[in-house]
Amino acid sequence: MNQHAHLEGGCQCGAVRYRLTTQPRWVGHCHCRMCQKAHGAPLVSWVAVPSNSVVFTKGLLKYYRSSEKAERGFCPECGTPIACVPASRPGEAPSIDLALATFDDPRTFAPMMHVWCDSAMPWLPINDHLPRFGQGITADDAAE
């Protein structure tokens, strides 16, 4: 197995493949309504990295603007939701969030927090001891 295999992933059908060239900035569970609707799930686990550290080794994502705050990328063949590209904030480098479950070995990355907990489903209790944020986070929050 490739020594970097734990930093690789892709869609369900194999038409899109990617590789990270650096470790994540943060890994977390998002409970926002946009993620819930885009993935058809009560939450999505994301791996956030600098935009320039993702190399698409096969195929490309198709993107749509899901809100004024983000674009979402998915496989144009099978529809697997793979990425969320948040709008850059002043003073922050552009980033891309990759769906944790799309990594070849998603056990590689342990989530560090929950975000947008104000939108969390009440029937899915958050019973771990990870930090919780009612809404989104800043780079400073992620660094803590």
Verbal overview:
The chain is mainly beta. It has one domain (5-143): glutathione-dependent formaldehyde- activating enzyme (gfa), CATH 3.90.1590.10. The chain has helices at residues 33-39, 139-143, and strands at residues 8-10, 17-20, 26-30, 44-50, 54-58, 62-67, 70-74, 81-86, 95-99, 113-115. It has a seven-stranded mixed sheet, with helices on one face. A three-stranded antiparallel sheet has the order 1-2-5, with no helix packed on it. Strand 8 (81-86) and strand 9 form a beta hairpin. It is globular and about 40 Å long. The mean pLDDT is 90. Keywords: Lyase, Metal-binding, Zinc. GO terms for molecular function: carbon-sulfur lyase activity; metal ion binding.
The CATH topology assignment is glutathione-dependent formaldehyde- activating enzyme (gfa)
- For the biggest β-sheet, the strand order reads 6-7-8-9-4-3-10
Q: Which of globular, elongated, flat, extended, rod-shaped describes the shape? A: globular
Strand share of the residues?
Answer: 25-35%
Q: In CATH, what is the homologous superfamily?
A: glutathione-dependent formaldehyde- activating enzyme (gfa)
Please report the number of helical segments. 2
End-to-end separation: 34 Å
Helical content band: under 10%
> Which stretches are poorly predicted, pLDDT < 50 over at least 5 residues?
none
User: In the CATH hierarchy, what is the class?
Assistant: Alpha Beta
Order of H and E elements? EEEHEEEEEEEH
> Number of DSSP strands?
10
